[in-house]
Amino acid sequence: MPDESAVDTVFVLVHGAWHSSAQWAATQRALAARGAASTAVDLPGHGFDAPLPTGYLLPGQPGLAEEESALAGLTMDDCAASLVTALREVRRWPRVVLVAHSAGGGPASLAAELAPDLVDRLVYLSAFVPAGRPRFADYVAAAENADALGAGLHVGDPSHLGAARINPASPDPEYVELLRRTHYGDVPAAEFDRWRLALSPDLPTAIPRTPVALTEQRWGGIPRSFVRLGADRALTPAAQDLMVAEADAAMPRNPFTVHHLPGSHTPFATRPRELAATLLSALD
């Protein structure tokens, strides 16, 4: 049955690091079943057009740890501008809800700061909130995130590569298991290949490292919600709580409403119906 709160609402869904619009598909179906429209956006350098290191799909993956990323020159401004364009395309809807997952919180926050008239509500799904500390890397390195997994996933030197590179196509079962536990802990190991092989290897270093400046008058004037993931091993619950608390202290005009989901960093993989219901509850 359609949800009355979804009437006249469109969700703009922004993926996180190494992901794409494709991972939102089941959540979009669940939203549609509840009467909500949605569009999922590929950030620049992601999705089916994401450039791959030349040896990534070759036997032995030659040069994977040394080859500079084709995304090295991509900026936070480029990513935010692509979202502003997507938001303009759906502004005819009476209510536009911008949803960001994980590292997508940086570009989404900057887009909202640049064009607050295009966003009626912000929803952060275990996503970076720059209001307290301006760089995602600042929270990743925080003491509250010390129990996170994933440090062993990076390939090569990001400063040289111009990207935080991972290896979703790795033949190493220990590496694959670490990737699963970090990002897809609720997905059984036997079913994980379909998810990991849909990831792209490069995240431009601009996304975790570029400071995002927000203001009370623009970003701070937009109602905001945070979906807290209780067993997240990529961005721990303590780190999520820290971002919310620091954002509310810095910009108290519209404090976060916090919603809770159990499980790991990627609920769109295992509980899309619950995620859709939570996104709709954030409208209240």
TrEMBL record:
GO MF term list: hydrolase activity
Start and end residues of each AB hydrolase-1 domain: 11-277
Sorted UniProt keywords: Hydrolase
Presence of the UniProt keyword Transmembrane helix in the record: no
Keyword Hydrolase found: yes
Cited PANTHER family: AB HYDROLASE-1 DOMAIN-CONTAINING PROTEIN-RELATED (PTHR37017), ESTERASE_LIPASE_THIOESTERASE DOMAIN-CONTAINING PROTEIN (PTHR37017:SF11)
Name of the protein this chain belongs to: Alpha/beta fold hydrolase
Lineage: Bacteria, Bacillati, Actinomycetota, Actinomycetes, Pseudonocardiales
